Amino acid sequence: MSKLAAQDKFLDLSDYGRFFGRFLANQLKDTRFTPIHVTLLFGISGLLAIYSILQGHYFWAAFFLILKSGIDAADGELARLKKTPSYTGRYLDSVFDIILNFLFLMTICYVSKTTLLPTILAFIGIQLQGTLYNYYYVILRTKSVGGDTTSKIFEHKSPRALPGESQKSVDILFTIYTVVYGVFDKIIHALDPDAYKVKTFPNWFMTLLSIYGLGFQLLIIATLLALDCIEYIIPFFIFYTAFILVLIGIRKLVFKA
Question: What is the CATH number of domain 8-254?
């Protein structure tokens, strides 16, 4: 089941791993593998990318980053195929992503000439970029007819556990999620507090926005690693963050609430 109604579907440049994700999910749908297992698997792929960077094997690091994007698409697909949506899986996926993003950049800092401060700025930038993309995307999904049932525009309290998951696990992961993502959510909401009032976002705008999706961010990192341009990764993402204001400006000027 799609996350969006037919009229709201757009070319998501960050979702290039969807084909592989669907393939993997279909292979696992009749097995004992759960979406949580798949989430753990993409975590392993991310760790292999980190190990490859440390060893100077940048091409393999790029491969494992792209593989992570493909596996990352599979957990949600498997949850839909098995009809087992869960807040546990949703929050675990997001927590893994932010931890891996931090470790990717710190590893790049360690093996390159980049210093700590620019690395922290790049990490903050990457998280703000991804938060903007998710903010507008979740708004679109809530106004569309799709298959997602675990994402909300505003999350202030732990949700009630769905069948098959523990309320305690949901509460713990929700707390971790709000701690690590809360400040980024608040910043983006402060920059565009009325976005949720917009009736919809056109497909071309969502496609443009998707350059801030995690998959596209990882594709950029993978490409620069494969080209042996590791020194440019941190500066690029600091510069790339400035485009946030352009996208929010377009939203406010063209698609008024």
Answer: 1.20.120.1760
